[in-house]
Amino acid sequence: MGPPRDEEQPSTGPPDRQTLRLLEGVLAEDPTVATTEFEPNGSEPTLLRASFETDRYPDTVGAARLDVRWFASGDFSMHYVETLADGDGWGCRWDRHPNPHDGRLHFHRPPTGDEVEALEMAAVHPLDVTATVLAAVEPRIEGHWSADGS
After folding, report:
1. Could you tell me which residues come within 8 angstroms of residue 126 by beta carbon, excluding any fewer than 6 positions away?
2. 68: closest CA among 22, 10, 103?
3. Sign of the torsion formed by the C-alpha atoms of 98, 101, 104 and 110
4. Please, what's the b/e burial string for 26-55 (b: 16 or more CB within 10 A of its CB; e: otherwise)?
5. What is the Cα–Cα distance from 93 to 104, expressed in whole angstroms?
6. 39 — phi, psi (to 5°)?
7. If DSSP codes are grouped into helix, strand and coil, which group holds residue 121?
8. What global pTM score does this model have?
9. What pLDDT is stored for residue 149 in this prediction?
10. Are 50 and 26 in contact (CB under 8 A)?
11. Cα 89 to Cα 24, 39, 80, 102, distances in angstroms
């Protein structure tokens, strides 16, 4: 389950590279994050990928990451993805962009992200959105351990 491709969303303008770099610094300092990287590169990033520490997950989860796109328009996509040990994927996404399926600000529900619902956030500043997403991921991680019996 990769990040949404640009052609899947109406254009929201050019990437906001300054915001992507700001968020990279925030995520790199988060204790749950193992690594961060830009795609296609650090000079002209269009996507920020943060990979979570695998030791925070039971063996049933092979990898977990957060793919972040932020645009000069203030639109964004934050896509949380888990690759499960059995090869399946689990993901959800917080989006703000023009679209035909729901309000500009919306949430793609797990496990596939196919079900979409309107979303309300008190603030859509990049730091607030990132804090909201990380706070939503934490119960998912804790839930893995309780479901695993550990």
Report:
1. 19, 22, 23, 70, 76
2. 22
3. negative
4. bbeeeeebbebebeeeeeebbbbbbebeee
5. 13
6. -125, 140
7. coil
8. 0.86
9. 45
10. no
11. 24, 21, 11, 24
Q: What is the CA radius of gyration of the chain?
A: 15
Contacts of 119 (CB under 8 A, 6+ apart): 94, 103, 105, 106, 107
List the pLDDT tens digit at each of the 150 positions of the chain.
Answer: 554 444 444 568 899 999 999 999 999 999 999 999 999 998 999 999 999 999 989 888 999 999 999 999 999 999 999 999 898 999 999 999 987 766 789 999 999 989 989 898 888 999 999 999 999 998 888 877 666 544
Q: Please, are residues 85 and 62 in contact by the beta-carbon 8 Å criterion?
A: yes
